[in-house]
Amino acid sequence: MPQGHPGTMALATLALTAIDCPEPRRLAEFYAAVLGGEVKDDQTDDGHWIDLYLPGGQRLAFQKVPDLRPPEWPRADRNSQQLHLDLDVEDIDAAQERVLALGARPLDVDDDGGKRGFRVYADPAGHPFCLCRA
């Protein structure tokens, strides 16, 4: 049975996080290059759903939405981010170089000389994610 906070029992366990995007395979391969893992396509839905099985057992899924309007960073009024990933890294400069080479684009990378501890990027589909100093 899943466990929650001490003294409570969890109702469920997290199965996966699904991310809408126009090109599921491309975005799954981007995150596989960033996080590791294995991209799997069950071949039954013409590429509309792709899974990324991460080391450690977590799973990200990528769902095709052809007319996706990506979130705007930082916006709180309309079309704001609904979800973003925080990714811990040992060397933020090396990680930045790598994600940019993979197709990410910088949104807010002024981390005040390291004082802030994170930098914000958009993945190839436009979803924000942060590289955070581990």
UniProtKB/TrEMBL annotation:
Q: Which InterPro entries would you find in this protein's record?
A: Glyas_Bleomycin-R_OHBP_Dase (IPR029068), Glyoxalase_6 (IPR041581), VOC_core (IPR037523)
VOC domain: residues covered: 13-134
Task: Give the range the annotation lists for the signal sequence.
Answer: none
* Protein name as catalogued: Glyoxalase
